[in-house]
């Protein structure tokens, strides 16, 4: 519809700008087309503006479909997570982003180049945190890894069209900004616009990958966005979250131990009371290709194992406030949360 409208505008701009100029004016004769020309001049100027405006809108939505809507923000504040209802990547964008999956490049013997355990190459290869789960940071490390593969003859930079993914990320970042700003404002940060993108990575879960351990991305307020580059069913091992477990930490990262871990059940007939541990319902972020899922970074979560025969590729984008950068805890607290998540899961 937009293209048809723009074609109509362009055709009439050319028509009126060329056929309605008054060329036969002399001292004794007033051109009959003067009024008509002024009218068409206004139409032409308006049409040119609308054409320019619609062109800019098309450029701004080149890689994505839709925008952030109020319902997304409301769901986030109520549940601590949401699947964005309107904003998503289009098909061509997910294909472009899949092209940066360098894990698909293999040696003649069939072994993945990225899984080489050579110490000299480990600094430029994706990091395998848990078995079968590879994290490829889309920054200097990615460029170094790409250069390494090119130098070894595994990749041809001349055929590399993957730079388009940077424009995709830029467009997504621009559209997510109002959501992120509103999130930090809701949690009491006066300077709610003082946040940064702290993480941008491609995360690949190979077939037969194992479950991650429970963890948080930050003990203080922050947002983690998961962008599906393919359909993610249960078999592929989606992200599992413990519902409302973000309440275990306040907005600045302090732990609310007794409030959210244990509850007291007083018996009506006696003064005795029993204490039991709170349980948190697991939520599974199954997604369609191009969909975007977001959750509070304080949420206890993990990636499940991939029992399918296909990879599960996603892009992770994280935002944190400049005063409370991740991870917000040390190794001992990480180990504690690992065990806590296991016990709190129903």
Can you walk me through this structure?
- With 346 residues, this protein is of the alpha+beta class.
- It has 2 domains: 2-60; 66-344, q2cbj1_9rhob like domain (Jelly Rolls).
- Helices cover 34% and strands 20% of the residues.
- It has helices at 2-19, 34-60, 70-79, 91-98, 140-151, 164-186, 257-261, 331-344; strands at residues 64-65, 81-83, 88-89, 127-130, 133-137, 195-205, 222-228, 239-242, 262-266, 273-277, 282-284, 292-296, 301-303, 312-321.
- The strands form 4 sheets. Strands 2-12-7-14-6-5-4 form a 7-stranded antiparallel sheet. Strands 11-8-13 form a 3-stranded antiparallel sheet, with no helix packed on it. Strands 1-3 form a two-stranded antiparallel sheet.
- A hairpin with a 6-residue loop joins β9 (262-266) and β10 (273-277).
- α3 (70-79) packs across α6.
- It is globular.
- The protein starts with a helix and ends with a helix.
- The model is unreliable at 1-58, 106-111, 116-123 and 263-270 (pLDDT under 50).
